[in-house]
Amino acid sequence: MDTLRKEIVRTWFLNARNSISGLRDGLGGSATEPRLHDANGLICVAIAYEAYAFGTFQKHSAEKNRKEFCTRFGNVIQLSNPTDLTQAIHALYVAGEVKDMTPNSTRPPVKVLNETDLGSIMAVIYRVRSNLVHGGKDVANDRSYELIRSSFIALYYILEKALVEDGIL
After folding, report:
1. Quick one: DSSP state of residue 138?
2. Do residues 128 and 137 lie in contact, with contact meaning Cβ atoms separated by under 8 Å?
3. How far apart are CA 29 and CA 52, in angstroms?
4. What DSSP letter does each residue of 86-123 carry, written as one string?
5. What is the three-state SS of 24-52?
6. Quick one: pLDDT at residue 152?
7. Domain spans of the chain?
8. What is the pLDDT of residue 102?
9. pTM score
């Protein structure tokens, strides 16, 4: 991965880190602010992940890059299991199926198959991110918000492990 791409990954990841810090420290103001904060965090960490995955695996397909990432880091959940990651993955598992909310989509719903299956976890996170970006998820809806928040936290800790392992962080 070239130096410029590493800086892009690092910058977006650090933006997500600010959102994680906000979760830990608590945010003042209305109940809406943390929801927007978490949605922003998911977008930041997703951009960092996508820049990292493309720069590392160089597949021209998000799905192929995700498969390569899961093959390489499939044991990240067992190796690095902070409580926040465990709780976020459990919340995604309990949430059940996540439908593709893109208009006219024929893709089947996805769900976390088990709490150690990185492939299904990443598929759910990607679907939640896509639904948020394309308008199918709304931070005002409690179930959607929990999916957004859990996806953000899970992807943050999973990607952090990969970036540390590759010397980017």
Report:
1. -
2. yes
3. 34
4. HHHHHHHHHH--B---STT--PPPB--SSTT-HHHHHH
5. HHCCCCCCHHHHHHHHHHHHHHHHHHHHH
6. 96
7. 3-165
8. 73
9. 0.89
Tokens of 96: 């059940």
């720069």: which residue's tokens? 55
Provide the 3-class DSSP secondary structure of residue 80.
coil
Cα-trace Rg, the chain: 15
DSSP state of 74: T
The residue type at 71? T
Distance CA 76, CA 23 (A): 23
Question: pLDDT by residue (tens digit) across 147-161?
Answer: 999 999 999 999 999
**What integer best gives the mean pLDDT of the chain?**
87
Which residues make beta-bridge pairs with 98? Answer: 110
